[in-house]
Amino acid sequence: MGGVSNLVSSSCKKIIKPYFPTPTSLRCCKLSYLDQIVGRIYAPMAFFYPKRSDIIKPSVNISQHLQNSLSKVLTHYYPYAGKLNDNVSVDCNDSGVEFFTTKINCPMSEIVNNPYADKQDLVFPKGIACTPSYEGSLAVIQLSHFDCGGFAISACVTHKIGDAYTIGNFINDWATITRDPSSKILPGPQFNGASFFPPSNDLPNESNFIVPKSKECLSRSFDFSQSKLASLKSRVINSLPEVKNLTDTEIVSAFIYQRAMATKNAVVGSIQPSLLIQAANLRPPVPKSTMGNIGSFFSVQTTEENEIDLPSLVGKLRKAKEEYRQKYKHAKTNELLPITIGLYRDADEFLVNNCYDIYRFSSIKKFPLYDVDFGWGKPERVSLPSNCPVRNFFALVDNKARDGMEVIMYMKEQDILALDKDEELLEFASPST
Fold first, then answer.
1. For the purposes of burial, counting CB atoms within 10 Å of the CB of 264, is it exposed (0-12), middle (13-18) or buried (19 or more)?
2. N or C: the chain end with fewer CB closer than 10 Å?
3. Record's family (predicted)?
C-alpha cells in the first residue's frame, strides 16, 4: 500500500476475553462436516460512523465501551475466543480475541468517498482480511479513529466456524449489547452444527472444495436503486409471467451473471461455458439459532448462446431454487448431510473443470447492515476490503440509501474493466460512491 500505510500514526492491541468463563460442558466445540470443508479464510466487514456531537459526548470512551460489550457478547459466541484444534474442533479455552485501536490521519470522507482505493483497507486489521494463514485469534476487531471525529469498526472473523449468517448475528448482537448493556441475546446462539452435519475423518479432496485464488482481482461496487430494480423485474415479468414474486436477489444475480458472460464472450469471441453458483442458507430446516456453516447452494449451467438472455436465466435460476428447496423441504436431520454432499458431488466436475467460468453469488441482503447501531447512530457506509482471493465473487447487500441493492464484485482486471464500460449494466446500475 506504499505511502498509504503512513496515514496510520498509532495502533495498540488488547486481548478481550469472555465476560463469564465458558462452562466445562461447552469447552470442546466439534466442527461440523460443512465447517471442515470450508477454508480458514477471515471474512471481513467494516462499518463507518460519522462524528455525532449530539450523541457522543467528549467524556465517552468509545474503545472501552466496545471492549466491555465485546467481552459480554463473547460469552454467547465463545468459540471465537478459543483455538482451532486441527480440523476437528475448537478448544473453547477463553484465550480471547484481538482488539486493535488505531489512529488514521485523514478525515473519514477521504476513504468513504473513494471506495475503490486501497485506503479503505486501513480500517481492517493489517494482513488479516481474507487471508487463510493468520495464526492469531479466531476473530480480530479494529476500531479506527479519524481526524474528523468519525470512526470505523471492523471485524475479521474466521469462516471456519461461521458463515455470513453467523457473522452477521455476532456483529448485530455485539452492537445491541453496546447500545444497551442490559439487553438479552434471545434466542441464544447454539454452536451445534455437528448434530445436523456430523464431522468426518474421510473428507473429500481439498482441491475440489477450496475456492481458487487469484492475485489479479479488482473490486467494484455497483448500486441498483429501487426504481431500476423495478424496471429490471418488469423486463423479465413481461416475457416470463409464470415466475411469481421475483426477488431482488434473483433478478440482480441473473442480470450480473448475464452481463459478466456477455462482456467476457465479446472479448473472447465465442460462448464460454459458465456456471452460476448461488449460496443458500439452510435455516430452516435447521433452527435459526444454530451457528456455524449451515448452508448449501444451487446452480445454473450455461453453455449455449440462446441461454444467456435475461428471462431465460431468471427462469432457470428460479427452477434451480425450487428444486433445491424440494430436496430439503421434508428432509429429516440425518438426511441433511447426504443431500448436501450430493449437491457438492454433482457440481464437482464444474468446480475442477477449467473449461467453465464459475460465478459465485452470496446474498446478505436480509441482514440490515445499515441498521447496525452501537449506540452512536447508524453507519454512513458498510464496506468490504478491496482485495479478495475469490475470483468472480459477487456479494449482494443493502445499498446505502436502504432502498435497493449494492453488488460488490471481485473479478480479474480485464473482466471488471469490460463491465465498467458495459452500457446495459450502466443503464440499470451506477458505481457506488
1. buried
2. C
3. Belongs to the plant acyltransferase family.
Joined together, the cell numbers standing for residue 97 give 480475541
The parent domain of residue 22 ranges over: 11-195
- The label of the residue with cell 448452508 reads 295
pLDDT at position 58, please?
67
Q: Of the listed 35, 173, 248, 373, which one is catalytic?
A: 373
C-alpha to C-alpha distance for 199 and 89, rounded to whole angstroms:
9
Q: Give a yes or no: residue 189 inside a domain.
A: yes
Cβ-contact 151, 49 below 8 angstroms: yes
Backbone torsion region of residue 96, taken as left when φ is above 0, otherwise alpha when ψ lies between -120 and 50, otherwise beta: left
| Residue 128 to residue 209: CA distance in whole angstroms | 22
Burial class of residue 198 (count of CB atoms within 10 Å of its CB; 0-12, 13-18, 19+): middle
Res 360 pLDDT > 80: yes
Cα(365)–Cα(251) distance, integer angstroms: 13
- Answering whether pTM is above 0.85, one says yes
> Is there a catalytic annotation at residue 373?
yes
Q: Is the pLDDT of residue 242 over 90?
A: no
Co-location of 376 and 254 in the same domain:
yes
Rounded distance, CA 176 to CA 181, Å?
8
pLDDT in tens, 49-78: 999 877 776 667 999 999 999 999 999 999
Measure CA of the first residue to CA of the last residue in the chain; give whole Å. Answer: 21
Domain count, the chain: 2
16 sits in which H/E element: strand 8-16
Residue 145 falls in the annotated catalytic set: no
